[in-house]
Amino acid sequence: MTISKKDVEHVAKLARLGLSEEEKEKLTQQLNDILKYAEQINQLDTDKVPPTSHSIPMQNVFREDEAKPCRNTADILANGPQTQETTFRVPKMLE
Amino acid sequence: MSDKLYTKTVHELHQLMKTKKVSSVELVTAIYERIEQVDDKVKAYLTLTKAAALIEAQKVDKRIADAKEIGPLEGIPVAIKDNMCTEGVKTTCASKILANYIPPYNATAVTELEDDGAIILGKLNMDEFAMGSSCENSAFFPTHNPWNLKTVPGGSSGGSAAAVAADEAPFALGSDTGGSIRQPASFCGVVGMKPTYGRVSRYGLVAFASSLDQIGPLAKDVTDTAIIMNVICGYDPYDSTSIDKKVPDHTKALTGKLDEIKTVGVVKELLGKGISPEVKKSIEEAIKVYEKLGAKIKMISMPSFEYALSCYYLVATAEASSNLARYDGVKFGLRSADSPDLLSMYYNTRREGFGPEVKRRIMLGTYALSSGYYDAYYLKAQKIRTLIKRDFEAAFKEVDVLISPTTPTVAFNIGEKSDDPLSMYLSDIATIPINLAGIPAISIPCGLAKGLPIGLQIMGNVLEEEKIIKAAYAFEQKTKWHKERPKL
Amino acid sequence: MSKKYEIVIGLEIHAQLSTDSKIFCACSTKFGNEPNSNICPICTGQPGVLPTLNKKVVEFAVKTSIALNMKKIKGESIFSRKQYFYPDLPKDFQVSQYDKPLAEHGEIEIEVDHSPKKIGITRIHLEEDAGKLVHVGSDRITGSDFSLVDFNRTGVPLMEIVSEPDIRSPEEAKLYVQELAAILSYLGVCDAKMEEGSLRCDANISIRPVGQKEFGTRTELKNVNSTKALKDGLTAEVERQIEALESGEKIIQETRHYDEKTGKTIALRSKEEAHDYRYFPEPDLVPLVISDAMIAEARKDIGELPQAKIKRYVEKLNLSAEAADTIVAGKDLAEFFEKCLKSSDKAAELSNWIIGSVTAYLNEKKIGIGQSKLTPKKLVAMLNLIEKGTISKKIAKDVIVQLLETEKSAEEIVKASGTTQISDESEIEKIIDEVLAKNAKSVADYKAGKITAMGFLVGQTMKATKGRANPGLVNQLLQKKLSA
Ligand SMILES: [Mg+2]
Ligand SMILES: [Zn+2]
After folding, report:
1. What is the pTM of this model?
2. Which of B116, B135, B259, B415 is such that its CA lies 20 to 30 A from the CA of B156?
3. What is the ipTM of this complex?
4. The pLDDT of residue C425
5. What distance in angstroms lies between residue C37's CA and the mean position of ligand 2's atoms?
């Protein structure tokens, strides 16, 4: 599979990543190189191999349903790039 | 006495504290003096917390003044990689996007250290969001290898390794996703350990690739490593993937003998092509050391290793692309000044805030998960992960521990690989399979070439950190490579 | 509605689970009005945080799965990340379940035109709720100057219940939601109030010519906030789709909104953005594996469900179907009713009061029985006063309003107002004598065979006592006097 500049633009949109024209060109090249290298994984037949998403298998880890107040709400708000009273303010949403 | 305090190991410092020959304040002061002397050259630190450290040191001194027993880390300074949250202290991940971020909470590993009386000196440089193998991807400045300032310290925990090697901290915490503790430990001639996945809580470690990330120590010798492991390992209810099993006393493994370790396996694939001759030579010498210690040596083939790098770069980037979505200008971190509307805010904030390597990985990971490619890339990679696990399982039926070089070469020059991502990725070839399988591994110094350290990697089965420490300590006792220090 | 087309509706219900803490952190789910007062590092997605799964959320979902007759509950389910950028989603992904949901393949029964109909349930899965956005400068997104983000709701546990496209009319959709709401509230897992947002409903709707096998293109109706709005919105959307097809237009797959003011549905977005959620298993959470033991444990905890309750009320307590329906429809009413039955065996009378005066009062005040001052003990005591003849039913109708509004008992109310029923024969006789004397004509009429005159005389006697005379006694004594 090869990646076109259009693919790069599509992926950048999914990732909400602004890219300059120069970055787009460079990334098209680099992603193609990396993916070409990664293509080697297709040499392996993995039809009967289950995927591993956790290297150390575990199951059913729970927390009891106990509500606890948080002591650092103010510190969380203090990190807000723009706050209004106790809300985070964001610029207008276009359609 | 205090003029050379900064060169000492944790266990040596503990003796001095215990016998009241040195106070924590003296020690902390001595280390900061050392930092002032050399950090202009090394550039290991991003943030120093001197005022707070001295206050804490005073508290500890008061406490130990009339204490009969003191803990092994009581009053001992430590430095933390800047991707672990420290409440009230800037945590940047060496990224512009978090340049002013002040966490409202502590990482569990940091709390563990503080609870045991360790004094936090400051936060250490790294590759941005732990993505990189050279520390050149820091948004602020690169860190230099104390052995040769023209070379890289390795990465991503480059600041951690350099700080310990340059005597700017008795020990440090790093994080290891594909080798990020072991590779810089190898380049800087210190000991670096990646514990079993889930052994140290990840809570508060800013996520790069959640299923691979693990916190671990960087220290001056294996003894210190065992001591620190005792403190940072353990179950954490805040991390669902942390292992709920009793932590053994790792210092009991410091016997100097191999004991129950009968067979040492050598990974065949990691002594072949791509490994530099001087590294290969050092590993062959290390094999002889183990033979002398009485181990049977067995060559082990790990056929899946060939695919580990591809597998890693698909899994790690996919998870990273998701973990890094939250840096969007809404709640914390950078917001672009050019944010006339929400969508522009997203695009511009992330364009200005992330460096090229982070962008590259976000792109690769987003692509690997996107519609139509998931099965071919992400799912396929997760299946190969199973094969890598199986190779290790089979190997540990035949051998007690496995060894290999930590890195194919010694430290490379700053700038040498920064324009060639693929060749940079290849420097993690020996460390990556360990993260994919979740097993523990250590890197210890095992030689010098062209004045630069070489690292020996020792791998063990899941939760067999003690075996690794035992094998590492026995080697260390026989060789003394860990006594070599860079001249700064 | 047209007979030419068949309506096909499938519903996705989001039920907020009534746990104390959020699904992945210990923040309370009971937030007040102050934005961002119930937030912590975890639910605001601070760098480095990890989720931990609330056990009760799983127990609630298993209980629901049993009640909805899900065939697959046992076994593994997996949390995944559903990724999209939005300011109300702090991590810019929602932890949800995707290819391995908690439960699959169930059904519930509703009653359509007095006959039972089964609606299939495709799946039940768990996920976290998003935060709240307030758009300033306009009441919609479009045209607003900026938006304010509040994460109090972020991380509140949601259970999504997806139905099969088995629903064939807006009325059925309404009945399905009502039945589901009743089940959830009986299970105690959800408040199930659409008006308050604890139950949210998205409807997929399409039409097809009768006899056609393939489904038509569907639209999605979002953000309806009552069962009435759901029914009306679906009706409007069906009409719109029929009109469109009839005039040769194509239905476009899109999200629409029902405007209650105009009674029409409008497209929310002119063009459906192609979503690519990039789901993948959440690496920070381990697989959830439901065992037989967990299912058995949950089963123990399931009380009588609405359908069974209605059946029992009708068959064992001899209530009318309507009365049983009305009481069972509100879990609080049924609980109240059953508490009354512990100290009274007058099921029919109790139900009459509950669905009569009590419900009328509660509806008028728009409150639940729990917010009134009426208790089972107070209601039973009033019934006893009626039985003993201390008060009449007519007076009781005034008394019950005071029982609902004040802390006073029926006895206290009656005593204070002096409205005790007069059951003293001599006292009533004295009044009857006065009435007879004043109404000689009616007496004569009665004696001449005009039976209806009796009613008038009873009425006059009651009026003279301001309704306090025991009506039975009045009748009895009048008979005796007039036939003397
Ligand atoms: Mg949903
Ligand atoms: Zn929270």
Report:
1. 0.91
2. B116
3. 0.97
4. 83
5. 10
